[in-house]
Design goal:
- By secondary structure, the chain is an all-beta fold.
- 0% of the residues lie in helices and 51% in strands.
- The protein contains no helices and eleven strands.
- Strands 2, 4, 5, 6, 9, 10 and 11 form a seven-stranded mixed sheet that branches. A four-stranded antiparallel sheet has the order 1-3-8-7, with no helix packed on it.
Amino acid sequence: QVQLVESGGGLVQAGGSLNLSCAASGLTLGAYAAAWYRQAPGKEREPVARIASSGSTYYADSVKGRFTISRDDAKNTLYLRMNSVKSDDTAVYYCAAARTLATFSSGSWGQGTQVTVSS
């Protein structure tokens, strides 16, 4: 049974930093594409950052240069380093894993972790 468990969310001041983690079980994360998505109140879920099984990374324009996605294959864990956070970054953040970068909608998802940025 595949399980993705996010942690690290919380309250952070604008301009600060936060590290999110996503521990995977039931699959070898390095063999999959993985991603962080977020959903703000009243908005649709949107991709934030993605990492291919090859290690190539892709970012939404809104977070490029501020967020970093990474993966520790030994720990089977996905990370999101969030720097210079803004109030617009307030959302529930979800990690996801899928066979390819294009199939997250049918992949495995975590339960989400709340990130709130105070101004």
